[in-house]
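Continuing the series of single-chain predictions for the mutant panel. This is the parent chain; the variants come on the following pages.
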Amino acid sequence: MDDTGFSLTGKTAVVTGGFRGLGAGITAALLDAGAEVTVLSRGGPDAATRARWIQTDLADESSIASAAEQALSRGPVHILVNNAGTQIRHPAVEFPLSDWDAVFQVNLRAVVQLCQLFGAPMLQRGAGKIINLASLLSFQGGVTVPAYSASKGAIAQLTKALCNEWAGRGVNVNAIAPGYMDTEMNAALIADPVRSRQISERIPAARWGTPQDVGGAVVFLASEAAAYIHGQVLVVDGGWMAR
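Parent structure:
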C-alpha cells in the first residue's frame, strides 16, 4: 500500500484535550496528515495553531452537548479522538467518592456522551473512526489511582462493546493504551530518580514515550489503512507489556 492509505486529507477530526500533553501530539499528527482538527478543551492553545478551538468543560454534560453541536454544525466529523483524562491520587481505603465521581465524569461518562453525539451521524453515513485513549492501567491496577485504573479499564470494555454494535455499520471503534509518557501528567514520576530509573529499566525501547509516538498511532487508526481494525486496544509502550 502506498502512503495515500494513511492520508487524512479532506477529513475532519475532533480531539478532546488536544492542546496539552499527548493531545498536542495527536493534534499535530492529524494536522500533518491533512485533517482539519477541532479541539474541545477548557483552555485554548499556548501558541498559534491551525486547529480550531471550542471551549468545553468535559465535566459538564450541557457543555459537551453544546460543543458537539457547534462542531457538527460546520459539517461532518469523520474522526473522534477521546484523549482528555484526569487522574487523582489517594489510597484506596480513603479515596473520596467525590473525587471518584470527578475522575469517572471526565474519563468515562464524557467519553460515552461524545461517542453517542458524534457516533450517531457516523452511523447514519455508514462511516467514521472513533479512537479512545485507554492506558496500561486498563490492564494493570496501579497504586493509589483506583479511580483512574477503573475508568481506563472501562474505556477498554466500552471500546469493545461499541465495536460489537457499530463495526458492521461502518464505524471503526478502537483504543490506544499509552505506556509511560514524558508528559506533564507524569512529572512527579519523572522527577523521582528512583522510580524514573526503575521504569526506564523495564522499557525495552530504553526511553519513555512522547506525544508524537501516540500521534502516529492515532493517524494509523484514523486512516483507511486500518479499515479492517475494530475493537482493538493498541498498546504503545516501547515494549513495557512484553517485559
